[in-house]
Task: structure prediction
Amino acid sequence: MDAPDDHPVDGLPALDAPSGGGNGAGPGEAGAGGSAAGAGGDAGATAGSTGAMAGAGGPGGGAGAAGAGGRAGAAGAPGPGAVITGSPRLCDPSGFCWVHPLPTGNDLIAVLSRGPNDVWIAGWYGALLHWNGTAWTQFRLTADRVMALAAEPSGAVWAVGDNGLAARFDGAAFTITDTGVPDAVLNGVYAAADNQVYAAGSAGTLLRWDGSRWAPVTALRLPIAESTETRAEYRDLYSVWATGPDDVWVGGAGVLWRKQGDDWSIVNGTSRALTAIAGTGPNSVWFAADDGAVLRWNGSAFSTVRPNKGFAAKGIWVGGDSDVWVSLYQSVEHWDGTTWTPISLGASLSSLSGIAPGEVWGAGDRGTIARWNGRTWSPSPAAAPGQTMASQLPYGVRALWVSRPDDIWLADIAYLYHSDGQTVARVTARAGSRQINALWGSAPNDVWTFGVNGEITHWDGTRWALAENTGSDEFLAGSGSSASDVWAVGLHSAYHFDGAAWSSKYASIQGTALQSVFSAGPAAAWAGSFNDILVRWDGAKWIGETSIPISNFTSGIQAIWGSGPQDVWAFGETAYHYDGQTWTAASGSKTAQKVWGSGPRDVWGLAAGSGVVHYDGAAWTILHVDASLTQALGGAGPGDVFLGCAGGLLRRVPAP
Result:
């Protein structure tokens, strides 16, 4: 299972491309940025001609930051001096590639648009991609977050993020630079001029690039209110923006600094956390705040243009004093000089960036990429066929079943969907109305759903029908060996379908709460409980499996799968294998919450977090997947594996 190679890609922009950052940000210039997240939450982003939390800005654009307590990314990244070229494959190092949405379903934090055919996006799990008007190119700088983007007037692009990441793109490849702050989160970046780049981040970190190295700017550190601790604490910095090398603004947690000439000073007038900065010149600077307020500096004083309305203002783009966009929760608002006009998007944009009033891009949650063309917001031209602006899987994927790569059923906490391997469509006539917890099928025209309130529905190739509704049970898992041997188990139930009707088979295990099931035939099925009970169906009744050390299953038996009655796996805190006679602990195995396989030498499991485990017939290996909350698993054949996660659907195909 080798990871895909990266390959250089032709056709990337030359260094004389339009700038997204630099001197004299004007109405037509682009910038990007991002936004800050509070303690314990996910980091957002904002941007614009732009400014934003955890993003970066180009002329008229600003940058922002991420707060403490966001989701942890995977460790490991190329070191200083490493040169990273792009790849056309939208896959992670383990080989899992996005099916829906494209180009990624991970949360995006920053966007930098320098024209309709020159757009960069960045975010979680090292997401960093470039759109050239025809195709996406992916760059893998880190497994953690890329927080902000900016461009020098010459066209060189900067990307900064977790663990002090700062990399420069010269038109062909990124080079990792040494920032000297490996523990810092760099939340924002902005190019005040060529070779004058500022990066701002956690704990008061502010760095300046002079064309050859990064050096700290120490004048900005402002101690937090006195505490009993002896060590110094400094306010996080979220956003950077400049009209030129002698006029630089830096916003943070209740602090705003300004550099005029060689001197830095605190600007009074606001105590808000300023997550994004953008403007058109020294007398028109706009600020977005984490309480939803939008402020304007007119050269001598602040005014509140948009009052606090609760939701954080994540991104801001300024085309002029009567043309301002701000991104909020699942919406954007536009300022025409007199009135704010809200527009519902059904998706939250963390970052905004543009080059002109009719060319503004946004990026945000679950891989959302949107474009304003001067009339409407719509999915970017880079979206996959049929892809909408808001995620078509708004609650992620919690269950799936695959008949073929072009015939996939998906479920979340509220809806049922079908995918042809490219597009995803919600099933409006699904028969049932309750939450679906599991899917299983024996053929394209024989698919079952199992869910809350004892609902079981069936697809016969033409329509969905309600097959069973006990009214009180909660089915958590389903499995079968054929169209006439199907099981549904749950908190207080075990039901069997014999090809004609469903009937309860729970009497012999009354009181056992079941969470997993696998059937290898009418007289060979296994079910696992929450309280470390593994039972086997012998064709007439359930009997306890006594040859397995149940004490090793402290979280219960979460998943069971097999290729037949002499090859069965049971997963809890570890894995056990049944060969038809005895259960044996699997050496080197990992815990798994869902299991699927195509045969004895191709078994896959979902591990805790974002891990996937694989058994090749000899040993177990673990793969890290660049996606959050992987919770559904299925496949179409040997090595052809599908994953459902919070952001959508991924696929790993066998190496050619």
